[in-house]
Protein backbone atom coordinates (compact mmCIF):
# COMPACT_ATOMS: atom_id res chain seq x y z
CA UNK A 1 0.00 0.00 0.00
CA UNK A 2 1.39 3.39 -0.99
CA UNK A 3 1.66 6.40 1.31
CA UNK A 4 -1.02 8.09 -0.78
CA UNK A 5 -3.39 5.16 -0.18
CA UNK A 6 -2.67 5.21 3.55
CA UNK A 7 -3.46 8.92 3.76
CA UNK A 8 -6.62 8.43 1.72
CA UNK A 9 -7.83 5.79 4.20
CA UNK A 10 -6.70 7.61 7.34
CA UNK A 11 -8.12 11.03 6.50
CA UNK A 12 -11.82 10.03 6.68
CA UNK A 13 -11.22 8.32 10.06
CA UNK A 14 -9.48 11.41 11.37
CA UNK A 15 -12.27 13.69 10.18
CA UNK A 16 -14.91 11.38 11.68
CA UNK A 17 -13.00 11.40 14.96
CA UNK A 18 -13.07 15.20 15.02
CA UNK A 19 -16.75 15.25 14.08
CA UNK A 20 -17.61 12.86 16.92
CA UNK A 21 -16.16 15.34 19.45
CA UNK A 22 -17.33 18.64 17.97
CA UNK A 23 -21.06 19.30 17.64
CA UNK A 24 -20.69 22.39 15.43
CA UNK A 25 -18.25 20.68 13.07
CA UNK A 26 -20.71 17.78 12.91
CA UNK A 27 -23.63 20.10 12.11
CA UNK A 28 -21.60 21.91 9.46
CA UNK A 29 -20.23 18.83 7.67
CA UNK A 30 -23.57 16.98 7.85
CA UNK A 31 -25.36 20.09 6.53
CA UNK A 32 -27.90 19.96 9.35
CA UNK A 33 -31.01 21.87 8.30
CA UNK A 34 -32.06 24.55 10.78
CA UNK A 35 -35.02 26.94 10.61
CA UNK A 36 -36.15 28.13 7.16
CA UNK A 37 -34.55 25.03 5.58
CA UNK A 38 -31.11 26.59 5.73
CA UNK A 39 -28.07 24.39 6.43
CA UNK A 40 -26.16 25.19 9.59
CA UNK A 41 -23.18 27.45 8.99
CA UNK A 42 -20.47 29.01 11.12
CA UNK A 43 -19.94 31.81 8.64
CA UNK A 44 -19.97 35.12 10.52
CA UNK A 45 -20.91 33.25 13.72
CA UNK A 46 -17.36 32.74 15.01
CA UNK A 47 -18.45 33.72 18.53
CA UNK A 48 -20.31 30.39 18.75
CA UNK A 49 -17.19 28.23 18.38
CA UNK A 50 -16.10 28.02 22.04
CA UNK A 51 -19.53 27.78 23.68
CA UNK A 52 -19.53 23.96 23.72
CA UNK A 53 -15.83 23.16 23.71
CA UNK A 54 -14.66 24.85 26.88
CA UNK A 55 -12.88 22.57 29.34
CA UNK A 56 -14.42 24.20 32.41
CA UNK A 57 -17.30 22.18 33.84
CA UNK A 58 -19.74 25.10 34.25
CA UNK A 59 -20.43 27.63 31.50
CA UNK A 60 -22.52 30.80 31.94
CA UNK A 61 -23.70 32.69 28.86
CA UNK A 62 -25.07 36.22 29.26
CA UNK A 63 -26.63 37.14 25.94
CA UNK A 64 -28.88 39.30 23.85
CA UNK A 65 -31.84 37.57 22.22
CA UNK A 66 -31.91 35.86 18.81
CA UNK A 67 -28.16 35.32 18.34
CA UNK A 68 -28.15 31.55 17.88
CA UNK A 69 -26.98 30.40 21.32
CA UNK A 70 -30.04 28.22 21.93
CA UNK A 71 -29.47 26.55 18.54
CA UNK A 72 -25.90 25.75 19.60
CA UNK A 73 -27.19 24.08 22.78
CA UNK A 74 -29.76 22.15 20.75
CA UNK A 75 -27.10 20.83 18.37
CA UNK A 76 -24.79 20.01 21.28
CA UNK A 77 -27.46 17.90 23.00
CA UNK A 78 -28.44 15.94 19.87
CA UNK A 79 -24.84 15.40 18.76
CA UNK A 80 -23.72 14.33 22.24
CA UNK A 81 -26.45 11.70 22.46
CA UNK A 82 -25.87 10.36 18.95
CA UNK A 83 -22.15 9.88 19.72
CA UNK A 84 -22.85 8.71 23.31
CA UNK A 85 -20.82 11.50 24.90
CA UNK A 86 -23.46 11.72 27.65
CA UNK A 87 -24.37 8.10 28.54
CA UNK A 88 -26.66 9.16 31.41
CA UNK A 89 -28.45 11.67 29.23
CA UNK A 90 -29.04 15.41 28.99
CA UNK A 91 -31.54 17.52 30.94
CA UNK A 92 -32.90 20.68 29.31
CA UNK A 93 -34.49 23.01 31.89
CA UNK A 94 -36.99 25.71 30.98
CA UNK A 95 -38.92 28.08 33.31
CA UNK A 96 -42.17 26.08 33.24
CA UNK A 97 -43.92 23.11 31.66
CA UNK A 98 -45.64 25.49 29.25
CA UNK A 99 -42.24 26.71 28.05
CA UNK A 100 -41.09 23.09 27.76
CA UNK A 101 -44.03 22.12 25.56
CA UNK A 102 -43.61 25.11 23.27
CA UNK A 103 -39.83 24.74 23.03
CA UNK A 104 -39.88 21.00 22.39
CA UNK A 105 -42.51 21.28 19.67
CA UNK A 106 -41.15 24.36 17.92
CA UNK A 107 -37.41 23.73 18.13
CA UNK A 108 -36.59 20.02 18.51
CA UNK A 109 -39.38 18.21 16.67
CA UNK A 110 -38.95 20.25 13.44
CA UNK A 111 -35.21 19.50 13.41
CA UNK A 112 -35.90 15.78 13.12
CA UNK A 113 -38.58 16.45 10.51
CA UNK A 114 -36.22 18.58 8.43
CA UNK A 115 -33.30 16.16 8.74
CA UNK A 116 -34.74 12.77 7.83
CA UNK A 117 -31.39 11.02 8.25
CA UNK A 118 -31.52 11.86 11.97
CA UNK A 119 -34.74 9.94 12.47
CA UNK A 120 -32.98 6.60 12.62
CA UNK A 121 -31.47 7.72 15.93
CA UNK A 122 -34.80 8.91 17.39
CA UNK A 123 -36.30 6.00 19.35
CA UNK A 124 -38.81 7.91 21.52
CA UNK A 125 -40.29 11.27 20.55
CA UNK A 126 -42.62 13.11 22.88
CA UNK A 127 -42.79 16.55 24.45
CA UNK A 128 -40.97 15.69 27.69
CA UNK A 129 -38.47 13.09 26.47
CA UNK A 130 -36.63 12.21 23.31
CA UNK A 131 -34.54 9.05 23.32
CA UNK A 132 -31.70 9.53 20.84
CA UNK A 133 -29.48 6.53 20.05
CA UNK A 134 -30.31 5.03 23.45
CA UNK A 135 -29.69 8.21 25.48
CA UNK A 136 -32.41 10.41 26.96
CA UNK A 137 -32.94 14.11 26.37
CA UNK A 138 -35.30 15.14 29.18
CA UNK A 139 -37.20 18.44 29.12
CA UNK A 140 -38.08 19.79 32.57
CA UNK A 141 -40.04 22.82 33.72
CA UNK A 142 -38.41 24.51 36.72
CA UNK A 143 -41.67 25.63 38.28
CA UNK A 144 -41.75 24.19 41.84
CA UNK A 145 -44.49 22.76 44.00
CA UNK A 146 -44.96 23.72 47.65
CA UNK A 147 -44.84 20.66 49.89
CA UNK A 148 -47.71 20.26 52.32
CA UNK A 149 -48.70 23.89 52.07
CA UNK A 150 -45.36 24.94 53.59
CA UNK A 151 -42.67 27.19 52.17
CA UNK A 152 -40.58 24.13 51.23
CA UNK A 153 -40.29 23.79 47.45
CA UNK A 154 -39.65 20.68 45.38
CA UNK A 155 -40.29 19.20 41.95
CA UNK A 156 -40.81 15.51 41.26
CA UNK A 157 -39.63 16.13 37.68
CA UNK A 158 -36.16 16.86 39.07
CA UNK A 159 -35.92 13.75 41.24
CA UNK A 160 -36.62 10.86 38.89
CA UNK A 161 -33.49 10.48 36.72
CA UNK A 162 -29.75 11.09 36.45
CA UNK A 163 -27.91 12.97 33.73
CA UNK A 164 -24.44 14.10 32.58
CA UNK A 165 -25.28 17.57 31.28
CA UNK A 166 -27.82 20.15 32.45
CA UNK A 167 -28.75 23.02 30.13
CA UNK A 168 -30.69 25.76 31.91
CA UNK A 169 -32.27 28.01 29.28
CA UNK A 170 -33.57 31.43 30.44
CA UNK A 171 -32.25 30.77 33.94
CA UNK A 172 -33.33 34.23 35.09
CA UNK A 173 -36.96 33.12 34.81
CA UNK A 174 -36.35 29.92 36.75
CA UNK A 175 -36.85 29.34 40.46
CA UNK A 176 -33.36 29.41 41.97
CA UNK A 177 -34.25 26.79 44.56
CA UNK A 178 -35.09 24.41 41.71
CA UNK A 179 -31.77 25.26 40.07
CA UNK A 180 -30.06 24.03 43.23
CA UNK A 181 -32.23 20.90 43.30
CA UNK A 182 -31.30 20.11 39.67
CA UNK A 183 -27.60 19.85 40.60
CA UNK A 184 -28.41 16.64 42.47
CA UNK A 185 -29.14 14.96 39.11
CA UNK A 186 -25.39 15.05 38.41
CA UNK A 187 -24.32 13.17 41.54
CA UNK A 188 -23.54 9.90 39.71
CA UNK A 189 -22.04 11.51 36.63
CA UNK A 190 -18.35 11.51 35.78
CA UNK A 191 -18.92 14.50 33.48
CA UNK A 192 -21.14 16.84 35.55
CA UNK A 193 -21.46 19.51 32.89
CA UNK A 194 -23.68 22.56 33.45
CA UNK A 195 -24.57 25.34 31.01
CA UNK A 196 -26.60 28.36 32.10
CA UNK A 197 -27.84 30.83 29.51
CA UNK A 198 -30.24 33.74 29.62
CA UNK A 199 -31.04 37.25 28.63
CA UNK A 200 -30.22 39.07 31.90
CA UNK A 201 -32.90 40.71 34.00
CA UNK A 202 -31.74 42.50 37.15
CA UNK A 203 -28.26 43.59 38.21
CA UNK A 204 -26.67 41.10 40.57
CA UNK A 205 -29.22 38.38 39.86
CA UNK A 206 -29.33 35.19 37.79
CA UNK A 207 -27.08 35.13 34.75
CA UNK A 208 -25.69 38.58 35.56
CA UNK A 209 -24.40 37.33 38.91
CA UNK A 210 -23.15 34.05 37.40
CA UNK A 211 -21.22 35.95 34.75
CA UNK A 212 -19.75 38.36 37.30
CA UNK A 213 -18.40 35.38 39.27
CA UNK A 214 -17.05 33.63 36.14
CA UNK A 215 -13.83 34.13 34.20
CA UNK A 216 -15.65 36.87 32.21
CA UNK A 217 -14.91 36.45 28.51
CA UNK A 218 -15.54 39.28 26.08
CA UNK A 219 -15.38 39.33 22.26
CA UNK A 220 -12.44 41.47 21.17
CA UNK A 221 -12.44 42.60 17.53
CA UNK A 222 -9.10 43.63 15.97
CA UNK A 223 -9.09 46.61 13.61
CA UNK A 224 -7.92 45.80 10.07
CA UNK A 225 -6.29 49.25 9.90
CA UNK A 226 -4.56 49.93 13.22
CA UNK A 227 -4.58 46.40 14.67
CA UNK A 228 -5.96 47.48 18.05
CA UNK A 229 -8.93 45.76 19.67
CA UNK A 230 -12.47 46.93 20.42
CA UNK A 231 -15.11 45.15 22.52
CA UNK A 232 -18.57 46.29 21.41
CA UNK A 233 -20.22 45.29 24.69
CA UNK A 234 -17.77 47.32 26.76
CA UNK A 235 -17.68 50.44 24.55
CA UNK A 236 -21.32 50.74 23.46
CA UNK A 237 -22.75 53.16 22.29
CA UNK A 238 -19.56 54.99 21.21
CA UNK A 239 -18.51 52.09 18.97
CA UNK A 240 -21.68 52.28 16.81
CA UNK A 241 -21.77 55.38 14.59
CA UNK A 242 -23.54 56.61 11.48
CA UNK A 243 -21.39 57.35 8.43
CA UNK A 244 -22.98 58.47 5.19
CA UNK A 245 -26.41 57.35 6.31
CA UNK A 246 -25.16 53.86 7.25
CA UNK A 247 -24.62 52.65 10.81
CA UNK A 248 -21.32 50.84 11.37
CA UNK A 249 -19.30 49.21 14.12
CA UNK A 250 -16.08 51.18 14.46
CA UNK A 251 -12.65 50.84 16.06
CA UNK A 252 -12.46 52.94 19.23
CA UNK A 253 -8.83 53.82 18.44
CA UNK A 254 -8.84 54.97 14.81
CA UNK A 255 -12.51 55.09 13.79
CA UNK A 256 -12.23 52.48 11.02
CA UNK A 257 -15.00 49.94 10.50
CA UNK A 258 -14.55 46.66 12.37
CA UNK A 259 -16.08 43.25 11.66
CA UNK A 260 -17.26 40.83 14.40
CA UNK A 261 -16.11 37.65 12.54
CA UNK A 262 -12.51 38.90 12.96
CA UNK A 263 -12.82 38.70 16.75
CA UNK A 264 -11.74 36.26 19.42
CA UNK A 265 -12.64 35.55 23.04
CA UNK A 266 -10.47 37.27 25.67
CA UNK A 267 -10.66 35.96 29.23
CA UNK A 268 -10.46 38.64 31.91
CA UNK A 269 -10.09 36.32 34.93
CA UNK A 270 -8.60 33.01 33.67
CA UNK A 271 -8.05 31.57 37.17
CA UNK A 272 -11.77 31.44 38.02
CA UNK A 273 -13.42 28.01 37.99
CA UNK A 274 -16.45 28.79 35.81
CA UNK A 275 -16.48 30.00 32.21
CA UNK A 276 -18.53 33.05 31.28
CA UNK A 277 -19.42 34.51 27.88
CA UNK A 278 -21.07 37.88 27.14
CA UNK A 279 -22.64 38.14 23.68
CA UNK A 280 -24.76 41.08 22.57
CA UNK A 281 -27.08 41.30 19.59
CA UNK A 282 -24.53 43.53 17.84
CA UNK A 283 -22.37 40.45 17.16
CA UNK A 284 -25.01 38.81 14.99
CA UNK A 285 -24.51 39.05 11.21
CA UNK A 286 -28.24 39.81 11.00
CA UNK A 287 -28.10 42.69 13.50
CA UNK A 288 -30.26 45.64 12.42
CA UNK A 289 -27.84 48.40 13.44
CA UNK A 290 -30.12 51.19 12.26
CA UNK A 291 -33.14 49.76 14.07
CA UNK A 292 -31.17 49.03 17.22
CA UNK A 293 -29.72 52.54 17.44
CA UNK A 294 -33.11 54.11 16.76
CA UNK A 295 -34.53 52.12 19.66
CA UNK A 296 -31.63 53.09 21.90
CA UNK A 297 -31.90 56.82 21.20
CA UNK A 298 -35.71 57.04 21.42
CA UNK A 299 -36.49 54.57 24.22
CA UNK A 300 -37.09 55.68 27.80
CA UNK A 301 -37.87 53.99 31.09
CA UNK A 302 -38.88 50.36 30.77
CA UNK A 303 -38.37 50.39 26.99
CA UNK A 304 -34.74 51.44 27.39
CA UNK A 305 -34.23 48.80 30.09
CA UNK A 306 -35.69 46.18 27.76
CA UNK A 307 -33.32 47.27 24.98
CA UNK A 308 -30.33 46.93 27.27
CA UNK A 309 -31.44 43.48 28.37
CA UNK A 310 -32.60 41.95 25.08
CA UNK A 311 -30.07 43.55 22.71
CA UNK A 312 -27.01 44.39 24.78
CA UNK A 313 -27.28 41.53 27.25
CA UNK A 314 -26.97 44.03 30.12
CA UNK A 315 -28.98 43.62 33.31
CA UNK A 316 -31.09 46.74 33.76
CA UNK A 317 -34.02 47.98 35.81
CA UNK A 318 -35.73 51.34 36.28
CA UNK A 319 -34.37 53.18 39.31
CA UNK A 320 -37.87 53.66 40.74
CA UNK A 321 -38.22 49.90 41.07
CA UNK A 322 -35.02 49.38 43.03
CA UNK A 323 -33.47 51.36 45.84
CA UNK A 324 -29.90 52.55 45.48
CA UNK A 325 -27.35 52.99 48.25
CA UNK A 326 -27.60 56.78 47.81
CA UNK A 327 -31.33 56.55 48.56
CA UNK A 328 -30.45 54.90 51.88
CA UNK A 329 -27.52 57.11 52.86
CA UNK A 330 -29.60 60.21 52.17
CA UNK A 331 -31.81 59.28 55.14
CA UNK A 332 -28.93 59.15 57.64
CA UNK A 333 -29.08 61.36 60.75
CA UNK A 334 -26.08 62.71 62.65
CA UNK A 335 -26.76 60.35 65.58
CA UNK A 336 -25.03 56.94 65.68
CA UNK A 337 -26.63 53.53 66.15
CA UNK A 338 -28.26 53.70 69.62
CA UNK A 339 -27.43 51.21 72.36
CA UNK A 340 -30.48 52.06 74.48
CA UNK A 341 -33.89 53.19 73.33
CA UNK A 342 -35.67 56.43 74.00
CA UNK A 343 -39.05 55.23 75.18
CA UNK A 344 -40.76 52.12 73.87
CA UNK A 345 -39.76 50.78 70.48
CA UNK A 346 -40.71 48.12 67.95
CA UNK A 347 -38.47 45.55 66.29
CA UNK A 348 -38.30 43.66 62.98
CA UNK A 349 -36.15 40.52 62.69
CA UNK A 350 -35.20 38.48 59.64
CA UNK A 351 -34.23 34.97 60.75
CA UNK A 352 -31.36 33.06 59.16
CA UNK A 353 -27.86 31.93 60.11
CA UNK A 354 -27.53 35.50 61.39
CA UNK A 355 -30.44 37.50 62.83
CA UNK A 356 -30.84 40.85 61.03
CA UNK A 357 -32.50 43.39 63.31
CA UNK A 358 -34.15 46.79 62.76
CA UNK A 359 -35.45 48.69 65.83
CA UNK A 360 -37.15 52.06 65.88
CA UNK A 361 -40.26 54.12 66.52
CA UNK A 362 -43.24 55.46 64.62
CA UNK A 363 -43.13 59.26 64.93
CA UNK A 364 -46.32 60.17 63.02
CA UNK A 365 -49.07 58.49 61.05
CA UNK A 366 -46.67 57.37 58.33
CA UNK A 367 -43.16 58.47 59.36
CA UNK A 368 -40.54 56.51 61.26
CA UNK A 369 -37.14 56.70 62.94
CA UNK A 370 -34.88 53.66 62.86
CA UNK A 371 -32.72 53.81 65.97
CA UNK A 372 -30.73 50.60 65.77
CA UNK A 373 -29.57 48.36 62.92
CA UNK A 374 -27.79 45.21 64.10
CA UNK A 375 -26.84 41.63 63.34
CA UNK A 376 -27.05 39.06 66.15
CA UNK A 377 -25.47 35.63 66.06
CA UNK A 378 -27.88 34.06 68.58
CA UNK A 379 -31.35 34.53 70.02
CA UNK A 380 -29.71 35.25 73.37
CA UNK A 381 -27.98 38.29 71.86
CA UNK A 382 -31.28 39.33 70.30
CA UNK A 383 -32.97 39.11 73.70
CA UNK A 384 -30.34 41.32 75.31
CA UNK A 385 -30.59 43.90 72.52
CA UNK A 386 -34.40 43.99 72.72
CA UNK A 387 -34.20 44.44 76.47
CA UNK A 388 -31.82 47.42 76.16
CA UNK A 389 -33.89 48.99 73.41
CA UNK A 390 -37.20 48.79 75.29
CA UNK A 391 -39.00 46.74 72.64
CA UNK A 392 -42.78 46.53 73.06
CA UNK A 393 -43.76 44.85 69.77
CA UNK A 394 -41.74 42.56 67.53
CA UNK A 395 -42.46 40.97 64.16
CA UNK A 396 -40.00 38.30 63.06
CA UNK A 397 -39.65 35.84 60.22
CA UNK A 398 -41.35 32.51 60.92
CA UNK A 399 -38.92 30.68 58.62
CA UNK A 400 -36.56 28.94 58.16
CA UNK A 401 -36.39 27.80 61.82
CA UNK A 402 -39.95 28.06 63.09
CA UNK A 403 -39.14 26.04 66.24
CA UNK A 404 -36.45 28.49 67.37
CA UNK A 405 -38.71 31.41 66.49
CA UNK A 406 -41.60 29.89 68.49
CA UNK A 407 -39.32 29.30 71.47
CA UNK A 408 -38.12 32.91 71.38
CA UNK A 409 -41.71 34.13 71.03
CA UNK A 410 -42.86 32.24 74.16
CA UNK A 411 -40.03 33.43 76.39
CA UNK A 412 -39.97 37.15 75.59
CA UNK A 413 -41.82 39.53 77.97
CA UNK A 414 -43.32 41.60 75.12
CA UNK A 415 -45.57 40.77 72.17
CA UNK A 416 -43.90 38.83 69.33
CA UNK A 417 -45.65 37.97 66.06
CA UNK A 418 -44.27 35.51 63.51
CA UNK A 419 -44.69 36.76 59.95
CA UNK A 420 -45.97 34.83 56.96
CA UNK A 421 -46.11 36.25 53.44
CA UNK A 422 -49.06 35.76 51.09
CA UNK A 423 -49.63 36.76 47.47
CA UNK A 424 -53.43 36.91 47.84
CA UNK A 425 -53.82 38.86 51.11
CA UNK A 426 -55.41 42.33 50.94
CA UNK A 427 -53.22 45.28 51.92
CA UNK A 428 -54.24 45.24 55.59
CA UNK A 429 -52.18 42.69 57.56
CA UNK A 430 -54.00 40.06 59.61
CA UNK A 431 -52.68 39.90 63.20
CA UNK A 432 -53.79 36.70 64.96
CA UNK A 433 -53.00 37.25 68.64
CA UNK A 434 -54.01 33.73 69.71
CA UNK A 435 -51.68 32.03 67.23
CA UNK A 436 -49.04 34.73 67.43
CA UNK A 437 -49.02 35.09 63.64
CA UNK A 438 -49.28 37.99 61.23
CA UNK A 439 -49.99 37.49 57.53
CA UNK A 440 -49.47 40.20 54.94
CA UNK A 441 -49.41 40.73 51.19
CA UNK A 442 -45.73 40.43 50.27
CA UNK A 443 -45.77 42.67 47.21
CA UNK A 444 -47.74 45.48 48.84
CA UNK A 445 -45.55 45.59 51.93
CA UNK A 446 -42.39 45.50 49.81
CA UNK A 447 -43.88 48.53 48.05
CA UNK A 448 -44.16 50.23 51.45
CA UNK A 449 -40.51 49.60 52.26
CA UNK A 450 -39.51 51.10 48.91
CA UNK A 451 -41.83 54.08 49.45
CA UNK A 452 -40.37 54.61 52.91
CA UNK A 453 -37.06 55.80 51.44
CA UNK A 454 -38.19 57.25 48.12
CA UNK A 455 -40.73 59.54 49.82
CA UNK A 456 -38.34 60.32 52.70
CA UNK A 457 -40.61 58.96 55.42
CA UNK A 458 -37.81 57.48 57.53
CA UNK A 459 -34.50 58.42 59.09
CA UNK A 460 -31.68 56.03 60.02
CA UNK A 461 -28.47 56.27 62.10
CA UNK A 462 -25.40 57.91 60.61
CA UNK A 463 -23.11 55.97 58.30
CA UNK A 464 -21.01 53.18 59.78
CA UNK A 465 -19.91 49.73 58.70
CA UNK A 466 -23.25 48.31 59.82
CA UNK A 467 -25.28 51.02 58.08
CA UNK A 468 -23.28 50.50 54.87
CA UNK A 469 -24.17 46.80 54.99
CA UNK A 470 -27.79 47.78 55.64
CA UNK A 471 -27.73 50.09 52.59
CA UNK A 472 -26.26 47.36 50.39
CA UNK A 473 -28.87 44.77 51.38
CA UNK A 474 -31.69 47.27 50.89
CA UNK A 475 -30.74 47.39 47.17
CA UNK A 476 -30.98 43.62 46.69
CA UNK A 477 -34.74 43.43 46.16
CA UNK A 478 -36.29 44.80 42.96
CA UNK A 479 -39.73 44.94 41.41
CA UNK A 480 -40.62 43.52 38.00
CA UNK A 481 -43.68 42.41 36.08
CA UNK A 482 -43.78 38.61 35.84
CA UNK A 483 -45.93 36.66 33.40
CA UNK A 484 -47.67 33.56 34.72
CA UNK A 485 -46.52 30.79 32.32
CA UNK A 486 -49.85 28.97 32.60
CA UNK A 487 -52.36 31.82 32.38
CA UNK A 488 -50.33 34.50 30.59
CA UNK A 489 -51.45 37.04 33.20
CA UNK A 490 -48.86 39.65 34.17
CA UNK A 491 -48.46 40.91 37.71
CA UNK A 492 -45.83 42.89 39.63
CA UNK A 493 -43.54 40.94 41.91
CA UNK A 494 -40.57 41.82 44.10
CA UNK A 495 -37.59 39.59 43.34
CA UNK A 496 -34.54 38.76 45.39
CA UNK A 497 -31.30 39.86 43.72
CA UNK A 498 -28.92 38.86 46.48
CA UNK A 499 -28.62 39.01 50.26
CA UNK A 500 -31.65 41.15 51.18
CA UNK A 501 -32.13 40.31 54.89
CA UNK A 502 -32.25 43.93 56.07
CA UNK A 503 -34.91 44.73 53.44
CA UNK A 504 -37.20 42.14 55.05
CA UNK A 505 -36.31 43.06 58.64
CA UNK A 506 -37.30 46.64 57.70
CA UNK A 507 -40.59 45.28 56.34
CA UNK A 508 -41.17 43.43 59.63
CA UNK A 509 -40.31 46.63 61.51
CA UNK A 510 -43.07 48.43 59.59
CA UNK A 511 -45.53 45.67 60.46
CA UNK A 512 -44.60 45.94 64.14
CA UNK A 513 -44.85 49.76 63.97
CA UNK A 514 -48.42 49.45 62.68
CA UNK A 515 -49.32 48.19 66.19
CA UNK A 516 -47.70 51.19 67.85
CA UNK A 517 -49.27 54.55 68.65
CA UNK A 518 -47.29 57.29 66.92
CA UNK A 519 -45.19 59.35 69.32
CA UNK A 520 -42.34 61.80 69.09
CA UNK A 521 -39.39 60.68 71.13
CA UNK A 522 -37.97 62.75 73.96
CA UNK A 523 -34.21 62.84 73.64
CA UNK A 524 -33.82 63.10 77.39
CA UNK A 525 -35.82 59.95 78.03
CA UNK A 526 -34.29 56.47 78.27
CA UNK A 527 -35.99 53.15 78.56
CA UNK A 528 -35.38 50.95 81.57
CA UNK A 529 -34.01 47.47 80.85
CA UNK A 530 -36.72 44.90 81.39
CA UNK A 531 -36.53 41.73 83.41
CA UNK A 532 -37.12 38.45 81.64
CA UNK A 533 -39.81 35.99 82.65
CA UNK A 534 -37.39 33.07 82.35
CA UNK A 535 -33.79 32.21 83.01
CA UNK A 536 -33.57 30.65 79.54
CA UNK A 537 -30.99 33.20 78.35
CA UNK A 538 -28.75 33.13 81.45
Q: What is the compact description of this entry?
A:
The chain has 538 residues and is of the alpha/beta class. The chain has helices spanning 3-21, 23-29, 69-82, 97-114, 176-182, 206-212, 232-235, 289-298, 301-310, 325-329, 379-388, 402-411, 442-454, 465-474, 501-513; strands spanning 58-63, 90-94, 122-125, 129-132, 135-141, 145-146, 153-154, 165-169, 193-198, 217-222, 229-230, 240-243, 246-249, 264-267, 275-279, 345-350, 355-364, 367-376, 391-397, 415-422, 430-432, 437-441, 458-459, 477-483, 490-496.
Task: Describe the protein's architecture and organization.
The chain folds into three domains: 44-54 and 199-317, no CATH class; 66-198, Rossmann fold (3-Layer(aba) Sandwich); 325-513, Nucleotidyltransferase, domain 5, CATH 3.30.420.240. The protein contains 15 helices and 25 strands. It has helices spanning 3-21, 23-29, 69-82, 97-114, 176-182, 206-212, 232-235, 289-298, 301-310, 325-329, 379-388, 402-411, 442-454, 465-474, 501-513, and strands at 58-63, 90-94, 122-125, 129-132, 135-141, 145-146, 153-154, 165-169, 193-198, 217-222, 229-230, 240-243, 246-249, 264-267, 275-279, 345-350, 355-364, 367-376, 391-397, 415-422, 430-432, 437-441, 458-459, 477-483, 490-496. Strand 6 (145-146) and strand 7 form a beta hairpin.
Q: Say what the CATH topology of the largest domain is.
A: Nucleotidyltransferase, domain 5
Secondary structure: number of strands: 25
Distance between the termini: 93 Å
Overall body shape: globular
Biggest sheet architecture: 8 strands, mixed
pLDDT below 50 for ≥5 consecutive residues: which ranges?
Answer: 6-10, 146-154, 524-538
Number of domains: 3
Question: How much of the residues is beta strand, in percent?
Answer: 15-25%
Number of helices: 15
For this structure, what is the CATH class of the largest domain? Alpha Beta
Approximate helicity band: 25-40%
Mean pLDDT: 86
CATH architecture tag of the largest domain: 2-Layer Sandwich
Radius of gyration, taken over Cα atoms and rounded to an integer in Å: 28 Å
Strand order of the largest sheet: 3-4-5-2-8-9-1-15
Going by helix content, strand content and strand pairing, the class is alpha/beta
Amino acid sequence: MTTKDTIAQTEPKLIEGLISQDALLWAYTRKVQTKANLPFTLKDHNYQLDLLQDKKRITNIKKGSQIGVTLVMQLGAIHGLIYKLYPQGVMYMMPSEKHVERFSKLRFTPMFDDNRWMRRYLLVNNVNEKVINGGSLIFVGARPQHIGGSSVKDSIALRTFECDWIIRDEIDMQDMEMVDVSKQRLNYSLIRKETNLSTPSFPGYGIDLLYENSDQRVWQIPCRVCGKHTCIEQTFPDCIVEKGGVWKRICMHCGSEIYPPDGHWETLYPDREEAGFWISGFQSPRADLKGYMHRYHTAEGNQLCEFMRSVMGVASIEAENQLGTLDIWARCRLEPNQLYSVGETVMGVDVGKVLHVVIGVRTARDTYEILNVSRCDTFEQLHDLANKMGVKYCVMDSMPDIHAARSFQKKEPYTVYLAQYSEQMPSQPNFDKKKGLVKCNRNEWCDRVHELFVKEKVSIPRRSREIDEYALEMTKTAKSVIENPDTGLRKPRWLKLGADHFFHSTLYFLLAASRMVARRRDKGERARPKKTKHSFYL
